[in-house]
Amino acid sequence: MMDHLYAPWRSPYLTGENAPGCVFCAISQNAKDDIKNHVLFRDAHCFAVMNRYPYTPGHFMLIPHAHQDSPEGLGLELWLHLQKRLYEGVQLLYAFGAQGVNLGFNIKEAGGGHRTPLARAFSPPF
Ligand SMILES: [Zn+2]
């Protein structure tokens, strides 16, 4: 038998009550709201944003501007660009005292990517 965790504070995120359409595309397309949206970084290809519902303090996500749900949808050049930013993200967490970093992807809906683009999550286990 499989047990499920229930996190009621995540319901608005999952049901989309707070964000019609894709919340990440809305953030991507509104750089003027970066401070309000907790965007840490952005360049021409991707942005990093703090998770509004963090697993741990310091949890943030690296998200391509292109709404794709798999690496092959991005293309190899953009995929490699994200890996460079990934490397920098890990170094940033070390600079803030993380002793280690947990990284994860949700690739396609069956991989947990519920209505979201491909995102790389950084969760320092503080
Ligand atoms: Zn999107």
TrEMBL record:
Residues 23-126 form the HIT domain. It comes from the Bacteria. This is HIT domain-containing protein. It comes from Helicobacter gastrocanis. InterPro entries: AP-4-A_phosphorylase, HIT-like, HIT-like_sf.
